Amino acid sequence: MEPKRPSIPMQVQAFRRRHRRPRWSSALAVALVALLLIWLASRLPGESSTQSSAPESAAQVAGPPWQMGSPEGRFTLTLYADLECPFCRDYFPELKQWVGANTDVALQWHHQPLAAHEPAASAEARLAECAAEVGGQAAFWRAIEWVYAHTRSDGQGLPDGLSYPDLTPAIEHCLASKRPDAVIRAQAEEATKGGVTATPSIRLHDRQTGQAILLQGPIEGDSLLSAMDMLSADDPAATPATEMPADVVGDMPR
């Protein structure tokens, strides 16, 4: 005969039933703790560093008008140029070198295709814009230099059969669209409204004072420095006229 097991009082049995924790509640608690840790991790400095890097990435995504030189410089030189203009072709390397030697200046390009140089001028401008759309500012300036190095100028365009060496399917896709046309047209219209009647022309803008001057014709470095001195003069009476031809600017004292 088996020994009789001691009986558990009814009160104790009822207590155990009331306070028994279901197994699923433990798993739920673990999951909630894990989610809480994940949420806390997302609020730690790692998140703020990701957010702080966003403006830097946005700054890298530039667009027309394309620039070279110091983006934080006091002065902006806007070059209104035609890629079929022989004077622009000869002047561009000189201006680029001068901007590179002056850390307070940024050079900004504006397309101004002349009617006498069409359709070659706009076709070359489209190539530069599409190169920039795919490769950014550096690609834009490479395309400008390549066109000037190979064009026959005066509306004759590039030699027959010559292809851009950096041509890619992405650039070809851009060339097949109307996107570059919109940029070129907008810049040309802005130049005309601003009084630009010839290429090359330069608008020198002092970002600190807000003063600007339009200079017509190829402007040598010393003359540009003279114009910069005039724009930054403390005496309002010394502020130059809004437009001056290259020969007048060249005679300005420094």
UniProtKB/TrEMBL annotation:
Q: Which Gene3D superfamilies match?
A: Glutaredoxin (3.40.30.10)
Pfam families referenced in this protein's UniProt entry, alphabetically: Thioredoxin_4
Q: Which SUPFAM superfamilies match?
A: Thioredoxin-like
Q: What InterPro entries does its record include? A: Thioredoxin-like_fold, Thioredoxin-like_sf
**Domain (Thioredoxin-like fold): residue spans on this chain:** 67-211
Provide the residue span(s) of the region labelled Disordered: 48-67, 235-254
Q: Which CDD domains match?
A: DsbA_family
Q: What is this protein called?
A: Thioredoxin-like fold domain-containing protein
What organism does this protein naturally occur in? Achromobacter veterisilvae
